């Protein structure tokens, strides 16, 4: 039985890391990454544990097995992941509905991973519905950036209701910044 829940154990964090390794960019061939998607940032157990302590992430389990995850990254995570500091700094400069993003209460979707055996079963929707249930009382929206060549992820986020609010290119890729407004 598939069900969404908050991360609550070290074993679940280890299972997230295992899933992350399966789909980390460069660990699969380019065709599979184009068709199935990929994740960009690798986390250590210690870092994932710190993120979880600040704000628990959402997972989908099949009995005791983590089959999907969606990492919660609140503003306090900024100094913990140096590679993402430029992303957070860019968010501070982006205008949304007449205000800069940092004037709102929001958090970042740090990463989503779904085991390939469970794709196409609505798990991304399940993850985001749980995020909204748990975090919408505290936050106005959730925001993330997606490599434009990760077309599977772009389509999945559009289906949820995310809208592109900014596009940019850096040394690693072309990116869309997308936002799901809960208000």
How would you portray this structure in words?
With 183 residues, this protein is α+β, with helices and mostly antiparallel strands. It has one domain: Aminopeptidase. Helices cover 34% and strands 30% of the residues. The chain is built from 6 helices and 9 strands. It has helices at 10-23, 30-36, 45-54, 85-93, 123-135, 151-160; strands at residues 2-6, 58-62, 65-73, 95-96, 99-100, 106-114, 141-147, 163-169, 174-181. The strands form 2 sheets. Strands 1-2-3-6-7-9-8 form a 7-stranded mixed beta sheet, with helices on both faces. Strands 4-5 form a two-stranded antiparallel sheet. A hairpin with a 2-residue loop joins strand 2 (58-62) and strand 3. The N and C termini lie far apart (32 Å). The mean pLDDT is 90.
Labels describing this entry:
Aminopeptidase, 7-stranded mixed β-sheet, 183 residues, single chain, 6 helices, two-stranded antiparallel ribbon, alpha+beta, 30% strand, 34% helix, globular, 9 strands
Helix content: 25-40%
Distance between the termini: 32 Å
User: Runs with pLDDT <50, length 5+?
Assistant: none
Q: What is the element string, with H for helices and E for strands?
A: EHHHEEHEEEHEHEE
Major pleated sheet: 7 strands, mixed
**Tally of extended strands?**
9
As for the number of domains, it is 1
Question: CATH homologous superfamily?
Answer: Gcn5-related N-acetyltransferase (GNAT)
> In percent terms, what proportion of residues is strand?
25-35%
The CATH topology name reads Aminopeptidase
